[in-house]
Amino acid sequence: MMKAIFVSILATLLVPFAPLAQTPGTAERQKVRTVSIPISILTKDELRQGQAEEFIQADRLIVKEDRDDQTILSIRSVVDAPLAIAVLIQEDLSSSFNLQISDLKKFIRGLPRGSRVLVAYLRGGNLQIRQRFTDDLDKAAESLRIVSSSASMAPRNPFDSVVDALNRFDALPAGRRAILLISDGLDVSSGVADSTPGQSLDLERAISRAQRRSVAVFSFYNPASLTEGGASRLTLNGQGSLAKLSDETGGRAFFQGSVAPISFDRFFRDLSLLLNRQFLLSYLSTHMNRGYHRVEVLSTNPSVKIEHPRGYYYR
Which homologous superfamily does the CATH classification assign to the domain defined by 83-275? Predict the structure, then answer.
């Protein structure tokens, strides 16, 4: 059933795109470069109901970079672009997280065939790899373990370990890439008073690296040693950082108020929907200047919503 859904989508999306216009007598072709980003195509009803529809009429897609129309080269589906996902778990999460491990195992085992999974824990200042990227989903699921919930194991922030995990994607073939980060999102590397999203240099670095590698970061908020007490300021800072990381990279942040959710089941249903409707979009960028470029992907069908990175840095 899922394969039939995506064939219907691609039949709508993969229309011939006109090449860049060449004027007679032009001595040199316009300089362009190829950009690839992950996008998720859903209907507004699917987002409200959390359930996949059998068919999406996406109509025509439009890509704008810095407000200028760009030429789409290809849109690769779940079938054509297998998923590589890194599951990152903060070591000092509240002990209630351990009740979610069975659902996390179920999520990993339910990923599309051919997916590659990495499992790692954010422990102190290091990324502890429990399972390197593997397409053996059972092996990846069984590598999960309970967290210590000890404040002594807390990372100074989760984002430097996200950068470390992003480097692990470099050895993989091209395809759809994602991170699932389960964390409180709090960066206290410069002190508790300076833990707002706008003050975290490691958060900005993680966003930049994820954008350059076309990795969508999905995040689940779960209290940890510093946020378990429900301090509203720290919770808001952590959740704001996770939201910024996910929004800027084409993922989504999942919260349930300021407390640990009783179950991640709803989060996993919504995440599975987003991943099953995820594509790898490649287009020609006409902007050769280095720096930040804002990206917008639109559908001519107003009932369709497209989630994608807000932009990227070209260096």
Answer: von Willebrand factor, type A domain (3.40.50.410)
